[in-house]
Amino acid sequence: xxxxxxxxxxxxxxxxxxxxxxxxxxxxxxxxxxxxxxxxxxxxxxxxxxxxxxxxxxxxxxxxxxxxxxxxxxxxxxxxxxxxxxxxxxxxxxxxxxxxxxxxxxxxxxxxxxxxxxxxxxxxxxxxxxxxxxxxxxxxxxxxxxxxxxxxxxxxxxxxxxxxxxxxxxxxxxxxxxxxxxxxxxxxxxxxxxxxxxxxxxxxxxxxxxxxxxxxxxxxxxxxxxxxxxxxxxxxxxxxxxxxxxxxxxxxxxxxxxxxxxxxxxxxxxxxxxxxxxxxxxxxxxxxxxxxxxxxxxxxxxxxxxxxxxxxxxxxxxxxxxxxxxxxxxxxxxxxxxxxxxxxxxxxxxxxxxxxxxxxxxxxxxxxxxxxxxxxxxxxxxxxxxxxxxxxxxxxxxxxxxxxxxxxxxxxxxxxxxxxxxxxxxxxxxxxxxxxxxxxxxxxxxxxxxxxxxxxxxxxxxxxxxxxxxxxxxxxxxxxxxxxxxxxxxxxxxxxxxxxxxxxxxxxxxxxxxxxxxxxxxxxxxxxxxxxxxxxxxxxxxxxxxxxxxxxxxxxxxxxxxxxxxxxxxxxxxxxxxxxxxxxxxxxxxxxxxxxxxxxxxxxxxxxxxxxxxxxxxxxxxxxxxxxxxxxxxxxxxxxxxxxxxxxxxxxxxxxxxxxxxxxxxxxxxxxxxxxxxxxxxxxxxxxxxxxxxxxxxxxxxxxxxxxxxxxxxxxxxxxxxxxxxxxxxxxxxxxxxxxxxxxxxxxxxxxxxxxxxxxxxxxxxxxxxxxxxxxxxxxxxxxxxxxxxxxxxxxxxxxxxxxxxxx
Length: 808
Ligand SMILES: *Cc1c(COP(=O)(O)O)cnc(C)c1O
Known about the structure:
Helix content is 31%, strand content 23%. With 808 residues, the chain is an alpha/beta fold.
């Protein structure tokens, strides 16, 4: 891409404030934190619920960015860069992408539907890449922002585009159509995803079909209900019932396809309904593009499961591994490098990278760009695997070339990796999963998978309920409610939360050691930890006169000035904090004290989740207002005030003061059923089947023979027990796990490290994955059944259970 000022103006119809008339741009960014922003960047200052790109403009100018699309020019930035002023920066981004798209004239495929969009897109890319230079949406970039960014990735060398579009409410598709301008449409299916954003199914269908207003052909499964909306659109349909353009007869994974006068068969590498339907969508595109039946059969037989997630894993020698061992194209490399920067836990950043494919560029040009990216991202060590990358990056500093993955594995020495964050990124054919296995810390098969997208979704849900000026503190105490501390903290600081809250000083120190710079408050500071807290710039909660005196003494001894502290008031919880009679003495100690400074005053609600205690809660809030007001007035200070926890945010929005403290809700657990519906599940505890046995009627299972088989029964043993944090009371037929999507009741008592489940009539085998909790059973369901609260179940999962973090 190389676009001049004139063209940008034409694309945006903006008013301008220009300082450099002959500037050109070669990339577009919306993320102020990306290390990829540079002099060639056109930065769109998007305005979200919680973030405003305008805030970062002066910072970006200092970093060399010189062209901005804004709704207003920030005062301090005026005259220092080119500004394009528009009414709405998101609309402008879409408009710019649409303009840019219009510069190219090759065929473009657009995929939408409730499920399977990303898989169909990825498979089509695999199936068609031998014959085309393809630009496709990276990962699942299918939103109002993701689609324009994907389209802006097009370059002169591409000759086919495949983009996916996803929508969650009405009016969205109309905006994406002119950005993609598809020639060929694919509708995968219409399921129930995002139903809540529409009045009814009809409305959702009509909205989705807007993507196809101008296509030359729309590919879909024969469906009268949908086709009646398709007035002038030419269709190319398939069906299992013999009434479509292409008719398919399916026996498990074997398809017999009848098209025109030809009948041919395809042997698919999987048999589940969804994968088969997605393969058929791909086959339809190949038929439409004129491929012959033999090529279609051969290529479809080579399809593979798609892994789109970037996973963060603990590695050997205190390394952190980011596993993206599935694709290596230029667009997704950019995304992975941004994620690496966001997650890096260690000073050193290493990348293991295979040959890079499908950029459309010639190798010299491509690897020049790759080298530029690696340099811009301050990568300390590059291990290149593949003939081309070995040759092309030979002169790159700290570059270690290997011609094949086998060659790397043969020379692998674990001691060459220590204290670094390693991005493992390779095209599928390089089988980098074998490298990940070596680099990963070895633990048993039970893992708690943490979905970082869900964490951010939940964060944004609560943020959407706050006034724009209310600050947000997130509690990551108790190892992030059992979900992992620094990984979550990193994602949170990336999303600019104002404070992190922990229980003990060492939790805060662990965050600092992992490179988290967001302010941290310790809720139960012990005097013995004050020194360390000061050394790591961590702020104490002050809850008693005794503690305050001790901290002031230390602050004085160290000659600190205005060290931030947080005053806790006890308005009724009766746990920690100053009560009314102590306020006078507190004020006396704080008055004219310059060693410390009251950063915030807060209190904690004891029953914000219980409607029956509403009066009590309102009384707590009133006391807080009054007592904190007295401190502020007598001390002449204006600190942050906060009292709401998760349920408080939900039930008492009027008591936000200047900050709230989000806890359990972030982890996908709400106390109110309506609230819960809006949250996404964060943690999924998975294990595997170690052994399967068949027992006869009358035989028993486990300690004390507490399960008795009444008939022939199949039993599976799982390597997880109460020492991993599964409450023993969940056994004996009370609880269940999910095996192959079905409920398998727990048989007999849960043992220390194992448990047995009844899998009679469930289709499964040894080594299969088992879900202990997640979407179903949910932690809330387990807690309710056992008469406890989700907090206890979550935080009880033992540290020996490995946490794996992923981002979609
Ligand atoms: C744990 C905690 C919170 C968060 O509570 P949730 O119910 O998980 O939202 C807030 N404030 C304080 C002082 C806490 O200890």
